[in-house]
Amino acid sequence: MKFTLHTIESAPEASKPLLEKSQQAFGNLPGLHQVMAEAPAVLAAYQQLHELFLQTSFNAEELTVVWQTINVEHKCHYCVPAHTAIAHMMKVDPALTEALRNGDPMPNAKLQTLHDTTLEMVRNRGHISEEQLAAFEAAGYGPQQLLEITLGLSQKVMSNYINHFAETPVDKAFQQYAWTPNQ
Description:
Largest sheet: none
Radius of gyration: 16 Å
Order of helices and strands: HHHHHHHHH
Strand content: under 5%
Number of helices: 9
Mean pLDDT: 96
Low-confidence stretches: none
Structural class: mainly alpha
């Protein structure tokens, strides 16, 4: 099955204002958004989830940990480089992004716990052990942050899965951060 990388001109009418919004926000049209434009409700939902996740209690490092933990676990060829670029724009320490990309330990115990909890949630489809929940709470997180991880996971399931089956090409702006998953 072939997916179209829609432009504002070629997109379904309901997707045109959504792509215009993407163009304004990013200065270009991300390939993922071009693919999603085929289904206006999907692009609208993704944009809304992204905006909402940015409004959570997580700081830039924590947002990056949640996003990239999921992206790497899902082996998303598109989102890992995209979120590496986003992390750089958000002034996240490149050592953190490299650790996430390479499966290395996090730079501190709190971020490691966030990573471990997110990873357990992804791998076990929302089931988290009592031990991991206790560690999460001991690290200073609570119910709000657990719910917020779920929001980030919702966003990433959409993008990661779509990128897999659509084989979205990595945007030129992200190619310098190209990533190949470890097998």
